[in-house]
Design brief:
Elements (H helix, E strand, L loop, with lengths): L13 E5 L15 H6 L1 H6 L4 E4 L3 E2 L11 E5 L6 H13 L3 E6 L9 H8 L12 E2 L22 E5 L5 E6 L14 H16 L4 E4 L17 H8 L8 H8 L10 H13 L6 E4 L20 E2 L3 H4 L4 H15 L7 E3 L8 H5 L2 H11 L5 E5 L19 H5 L43 H5 L5 H14 L10 E2 L6 E5 L4 E6 L5 E4 L5 E5 L5 E3 L2 E4 L3 E6 L1
Parallel strand pairs: 1-2, 1-13, 2-5, 5-9, 9-10, 10-11, 12-13
Antiparallel strand pairs: 3-4, 6-8, 7-8, 14-15, 15-16, 16-21, 17-20, 18-21, 19-20
The chain binds beta-D-glucopyranose.
The site of beta-D-glucopyranose (BGC) has 10 residues, from loops.
């Protein structure tokens, strides 16, 4: 096993996503906060991660879990204070952890001072030009400027009442009506974001996750979409009932996403990042098709990483997994950016619930942990947490509310974490949690799993520990694929690392043509006789040659 490492930190960092509202509450209001994150830094450092990414904690009316930002340069009192945010950065750094903050450039909250000014100003004014305000169509302007839908269902336009009390212009919101889209053709918008980036860079953040990074440039809004309702369905993570071909055709060439103009914006952002020392980085959230276009976001002079969401949807199937890994690496090879991998995030069903099988989730995790590039872990994923079970009355996601419950939304993945099995609310809060925790979360609590050698948590700890030492894991090195029986993933990497995954339900034998020992496994029962490895169903093995 080789012990030499490593290039720039973010090229193969393990980055842990904290969703602050659901992580740890320190003041008994039932909502997680920054002091709660500081309290749990020893736990986070003990996982063997390299960095934290925090979902937004900025001033917000919380219509979309804080992705509706009313002041990107201050902390919402629910989460603490600016001093708490500064302390978090310095405490994390003391423990050797980098810190990444979320920025939300596609829209502001309607509570942002700019939007309030826009509502009070006249059509055509400079204040309105920071957003997308247009007159409606029809003899009384009663028809929205185009037929686009909000990603959260319903029209993407809301008509305002002008200061004279009459119905007036419409504004665009690709998300909730409380999230007016910003007009990135307006240089004032870019200047304001540069100020925000510098504000946090000056305070020591190591990077930014860019929300809806593919949304900032839009096509001419006067053109209607051919089938806006189908497009809304295609954009949902759960777009069941639609063929893959239909979905891809709708997601290709969307009028408001992945327009060429976004790249000019990121070239400007990159100049700001490069003003700072210390290998600061950016990662783009860009949910687009074809995925080959993702590489455009990480060309030299643009961003550093772009999320690859393949594994949020991947089937537990060797051929699909191999195809995905090969494609993702291939798509990025010309631009030199590292790939990223994620099984979970705050917008998607948790992997255990999605696959409906814990063994498969453990085995898929060990594949993701072994790949080149950077690994993102969403809070609770390391516990094998399933989605929380919620009654309709408890759900808060605007996607649920705006679809009248047709779209269940994302709250299931946002239920607060269980820390201690025997404490009220499993140690998350001594107040009433903002989303009720499922009773079964008790058995997933950190203290319970800590004490169990076979737990999900200890599986992750072992993976991340090995990743730190072994040059055949993470890193930039290539993957060598080997022939294998159907249903088996078989590849090797540098320094004698071999991975075997059995995606079938039955024990399968594979001849690896070399001697090797097992260094990590997602489940029990494997054995090696000579060069023949016997792998139980739904199991991944890490071998050392
Ligand atoms: C975030 C979501 C949010 C949306 C609008 C995203 O992609 O991850 O949680 O609802 O952007 O800001």
């Amino acid at each position: 096993m080789s012990l030499t490492r490593k290039s720039v930190w973010w090229r193969d960092a393990v980055i842990y996503q904290v969703y602050p509202r659901s992580f740890k509450d320190s003041n008994s209001d039932g909502i997680g906060d920054i002091p709660g994150i500081i309290e749990k830094l020893p736990y986070l450092a003990s996982l063997g991660i390299d960095a934290l990414w925090l979902s937004p904690f900025y001033t917000t009316p919380n219509k979309d879990g804080g992705y509706d930002v009313a002041n990107p340069r201050d902390v919402d009192p629910t989460f603490g204070s600016l001093t708490d945010a500064e302390e978090l950065i310095s405490e994390a750094h003391t423990r050797g952890l980098k810190v990444i903050f979320d920025v939300v450039p596609n829209h502001f909250s309607s509570e942002h001072i700019w939007f309030k000014e826009a509502l009070l100003s006249a059509p055509g004014s400079a204040a309105r030009a920071r957003f997308h305000f247009y007159d409606g169509k029809g003899s009384h302007g009663e028809i929205p400027p185009n037929n686009w839908n909000s990603l959260f269902n319903g029209p993407a336009w809301t008509r305002i009442t002008e200061s004279n009390g009459e119905l007036g212009q419409w504004y665009l919101h690709l998300f909730d009506s409380s999230q007016p889209d910003l007009n990135w053709d307006n240089p004032e918008v870019l200047e304001d974001f540069k100020t925000t980036l510098r504000f946090w860079l000056d305070r020591g953040v190591d990077g930014f996750r860019i929300d809806v990074a593919h949304g900032l440039a839009k096509d001419d809004i006067h053109a209607d979409h051919r089938d806006p309702d189908a497009l809304t369905r295609a954009l949902r993570v759960d777009s069941s009932g639609m063929s893959k071909e239909e979905r891809i055709s709708l997601l290709t060439d969307m009028p408001f996403f992945d327009r060429d103009g976004v790249h000019d914006i990121y070239k400007e952002w990159r100049k700001v990042i490069d003003e700072y020392s210390g290998d600061r980085m950016t990662v783009a959230e860009a949910y687009i098709y074809p995925t080959s276009r993702l590489a455009r976001y990480v060309r030299p002079g643009e961003l550093h990483q772009v999320f690859n969401f393949d594994f949020l949807l991947i089937e537990w199937d060797a051929a699909a997994i191999k195809e995905s890994i090969i494609r993702v690496l291939d798509e990025l090879k010309d631009v030199g950016a590292p790939p990223t991998w994620a099984l979970d995030n705050h917008d998607s069903p948790r992997v255990v619930s999605r696959l409906g099988n814990v063994d498969q989730a453990r085995a898929l995790a060990l594949i993701a942990h072994a790949l080149p590039g950077s690994l993102y872990i969403y809070q609770g994923e390391e516990l094998g947490l399933p989605d929380g079970e919620l009654a309709p009355k408890d759900r808060q996601d605007p996607a649920f509310i705006r679809s009248n419950g047709k779209d269940l939304g994302r709250d299931g993945a946002r239920v607060p974490l269980p820390w201690e099995a025997s404490k009220p609310n499993f140690g998350f809060s001594s107040g009433s949690p903002w989303l009720p925790q499922t009773a079964a979360y008790k058995e997933f609590s950190v203290d319970t799993e800590d004490a169990d050698q076979g737990s999900f948590l200890n599986l992750y700890r072992t993976s991340l520990g090995l990743r730190k030492q072994h040059t055949g894991l993470g890193g930039d090195s290539e993957i060598h694929w080997h022939d294998a029986p159907e249903g088996i993933v078989f590849f090797s990497r540098t320094a004698g690392f071999i991975l075997l995954a059995n995606t079938t339900a039955n024990t399968t034998e594979v001849n690896i043509h070399t001697a090797a020992v097992i260094i990590h496994q997602s489940g029990p029962g494997a054995f090696i006789a000579g060069s023949i490895v016997s792998i139980p169903g739904n199991t991944t093995l890490w071998l050392q040659q």
